[in-house]
Amino acid sequence: MTEITFSYRFDFPDNSKKRFLIHLDKETLAYKPSNNNPPEWTHLGIARCKCCKLELSEHDFCPIAKNLADLVFAFKETPSHKACLVSCISAARTCSKETTVQEGLASIMGIIMATSGCPSMAILKPMACFHLPFATVEETMYRSASAYLLRQYFSHKQGESCDFFMHRIEGHYEEVQTVNEGILKRINMTSKMDADKNAIVTLNALAQILVMEVDEDLESFRRLFT
C-alpha cells in the first residue's frame, strides 16, 4: 500500500447521503488533492493568514483552502446541527457515530488541514497517521501533548534543540489558531450555512484548550501516571 485512506460517510434521516474520500501518502502523510479547478477564494493572496510562510511568487493557492474546497462546496447549504450517522472507514477499523454534521466535518477538516502542506500546521501532521474520529476533548489533548513530546524525543536523538518542558508549544498553537481563523474567513466568502464554519470553530477551540492545559502543567492528566 502506498497510501492511507479514510472514507467518510454521512447518512441522513431522509435517506440522503454524502461521501468524502481522503488519500494520504503513506510515507510523507501528504494529502493527495482531487481538486484541479480551485475556486477564487482559495488563492493564496485572498484572506492570507498573518503567519503565512508561503511565498506568493511560488504558490498560487493556499494549500489548505484548495484541499478543503470540495468539502466546503458539498456542505455549503447544510446546517451544523443537522443530525446524521457519520462513519469513518479505514484499513484498520470502521467508526460510526450518531452525531451532527458539524462534528463529522471537524473530524475530516482536522486531517486535511494537518496534511495539506501548510508550514504552520505541520505540528499536527503526525497525528493524521493515527487519526481518531470523533475524539473527545480529553482524547485530543492527550494525543496532541503526546505527539509533541515524541517529536522532542526524536529531535533530541538527532542532536537538535528539544523542548521537553513544552515551553515553545504555545507559539506553535498560536499559529494553528491563526490559520484556523484565516480559513474561517475564506469559508465565509462562499458558504451560506454554518456546518463547515462551526467545524473550524470547534478545531480552534481545541487548540486554545491545549495551550490552557499546558499552562496548567497538564495537571488534568497527572492522575493517570500516579
Short synopsis of the structure:
Helices cover about 40% and strands about 15% of the residues.
Report the biggest beta sheet as strand number plus sense, adding barrel if it closes: 4 strands, antiparallel
Strand content: 5-15%
Gyration radius, in Å: 18 Å
Low-confidence stretches: none
What distinguishing features does this structure have?
single chain, 226 residues, alpha+beta, four-stranded antiparallel beta sheet, 42% helix
Task: Detail the topology: elements first, then pairings.
Elements: E1 3-11, E2 17-25, H1 63-75, E3 83-89, E4 94-100, H2 101-115, H3 125-128, H4 137-157, H5 169-188, H6 195-215
Antiparallel strand pairs: 1-2, 1-3, 3-4
Helix pairs in contact: 1-2, 2-6, 4-6, 5-6
Give a description of the structure.
The protein has 226 residues and is α+β, with helices and mostly antiparallel strands. It has one domain (3-225). The protein has six helices and four strands. The protein has helices spanning 63-75, 101-115, 125-128, 137-157, 169-188, 195-215, and strands spanning 3-11, 17-25, 83-89, 94-100. The chain has a four-stranded antiparallel β-sheet, covered by helices on one side. β3 (83-89) and β4 (94-100) form a beta hairpin. The longest helix has 21 residues, at 137-157. The chain is globular and about 50 Å long. The N and C termini lie far apart (41 Å). The mean pLDDT is 93.
